[in-house]
Amino acid sequence: MSSPILFVIVGKNEPLFEAEIDTHTGSQGNELSTRQNYFVLHSALDLVEKSAWTTTNMYLRVVDKVNHQQVSTFLTAGNIKFMLLHGGKGDEVIKSFFNEVYGYYVKLSMNPFYKYDTPITSKAFETRVRAAARSYLS
Amino acid sequence: MNLNKAPSNILDRPLDRPRSSDGVSLSAFAYIYSELVQYHQGRAASISELERRLESAGYGVGLKILELVAYRAKESKRETRLMSILHFVSSYVWKTLFGKSADSLERSIDHADEYMIVDYEPITSTFVSVPSDLGQLSVDAYLSGIIAGVLDGAGFSARVTAHSVKIEEGEVPPTGSGGFSVPGMPPRKEKAVFLVKFSPEVLSRDAALER
Amino acid sequence: MSSKSSAAQSGQALWTKMPKANAELFALTYGSLVTELVRDYEDPIEVNAQLDRIGHSIGVRCVDEFLSKADVAGMGMTTQCQSLRDTAEVVAKMGFKMFLGVQAEVGGFSQDQKSFSIYLQDNPLSTFVELPGDEQGGSDDLRRLKYSNVYCGVIRGALEQVNLKVECNIVRDTLKGDDLNEIRVELKEVLTDGAGDDYKEE
């Protein structure tokens, strides 16, 4: 799979975490596609917000299909949105990826020093998210 | 020295529900909680300010508890309806925090936007008695903050306040003896009622989903 | 010395009888207190001092509970502490166990038998804590925070009630990357108020 994957965590008002992942190496993708990708994710947010109240599922399947790319979203109990822009990965692998990231997110949020809905700066979190992406999404 | 080493990074520690032998003594919680109350009391100019501070402290805890409890339920489901979030709070959240469900969940007769969660033996006032100069203060303000944090995080913003209500002669908690009696302590004269007043947007959204 | 294993046994018996509270609520409540102190005082050294003060207040109060329950358990150990070693065992194996459900270890006695360490592998105060400042350039200030400093105050306050004046310091901290938590306790003075000299220095 050559297209890089963009994973973003969005809070109530702003992105809390971003990682562009080249699943071959797990490293940063290139900048050219970045801005377009962020635009796609951003416009998907409205659709996410609308569907959020129509289902009790945390995993919202492909919400927007633009330019051969798809957006899958996972909504935590606290309405924090995990959004994945990808070139068409299977539901099961995406769910597994989201569930693993959710585990890391919950542990991070249990830290008294982490305040809900604020940017995530932990390097340990980023490392594990990238590792999970490599395991499930390559 | 035979010591088992826990994973060094918090992100690698297990989140699953601990075995029943885990926990701390109620006394340890009561001492820490009592110091939290005294600390805020020292910085509050009034009883209502103290209550707000305790609620605010609880609010942050509530946001964390929401994700923890939902994650552990392992159903990958979120609550989208008002009755289900209340049920989530009065049973799952209560069970996690206190080892038992709340004693009852009631809807106000007079106000469509108000609900009550009742507990006959809330942990925060078990050992903390209110000094006479604090009047109406209910130290259960911390718990109201927790409830508010859970509700708000889940998208059901509400004003939550704690009230001590006299236990009527002959009144028996619905669950029987209550899971939480402490040996050697005299029976409680008052129960804690957490009054939840949902905001108008929440009510209209929930009504719209009804159709 | 038979008192060592019986301390652990009494500790377990005491723990079993204590009503329990949820460990996460406990850790999050303490966390709320620490972060509030950090917001209000900013300087981690000052926060450490506040935690010690708070611990002292708790220590003075919890001793009564401990002594009444430990006597009831029939051990009578605490009135027979013949040495600092016995006291150390009681604090670690009975005190920590009864209140926190964790088994602390004792060791590192100095030549003059006036100081020792308490080792704690599992720390119920800091279950999901990670000190901020690893990544940002700015506030590695908080690396100077002794998150669990309340323990030092508790030990100090509790031992004061049995006429032992001690100084306590956290010398190893799992939050700082150490393998375990170590609290160093140093006896400064035996106070005699005439109420009883059940403490004899060896």
TrEMBL record, chain A:
SUPFAM superfamilies associated with the record: SNARE-like
CDD domains, A to Z: TRAPPC2_sedlin
Alphabetical list of Pfam families matching this protein: Sedlin_N
Protein name stated in the entry: Trafficking protein particle complex subunit 2
Superkingdom of the organism of origin: Eukaryota
TrEMBL record, chain B:
Residues that span the membrane, as ranges: none
One Gene Ontology CC term in the entry: Golgi apparatus
Keywords assigned: Endoplasmic reticulum, ER-Golgi transport, Golgi apparatus, Transport
Pfam families found in the cross-reference section: TRAPP
GO biological process: vesicle-mediated transport
Superkingdom of origin organism: Eukaryota
Record's subcellular location: Endoplasmic reticulum; Golgi apparatus, cis-Golgi network
Keyword Signal attached: no
Region annotation Disordered: where it falls in the sequence: 1-20
Subunit (UniProt): Part of the multisubunit TRAPP (transport protein particle) complex.
Entry's family note: Belongs to the TRAPP small subunits family. BET3 subfamily.
Annotated protein name in UniProt: Trafficking protein particle complex subunit
Organism this protein belongs to: Cyclotella atomus
From TrEMBL, chain C:
A GO-annotated cellular component: Golgi apparatus
Any single GO BP term: macroautophagy
SUPFAM superfamilies in alphabetical order: Ligand-binding domain in the NO signalling and Golgi transport
Keyword flag Nucleotide-binding: no
Coarse class of the protein's main subcellular location: endoplasmic reticulum
InterPro entries, A to Z: Bet3, NO_sig/Golgi_transp_ligand-bd, TRAPP_component
Localization, UniProt: Endoplasmic reticulum; Golgi apparatus, cis-Golgi network
Keyword Repressor set for record: no
Entries under Pfam families matching the protein: TRAPP
Protein role: May play a role in vesicular transport from endoplasmic reticulum to Golgi.
Similarity comment: family membership: Belongs to the TRAPP small subunits family. BET3 subfamily.
Subunit and partners: Homodimer.
Protein name: Trafficking protein particle complex subunit
Organism whose genome encodes this protein: Cyclotella atomus
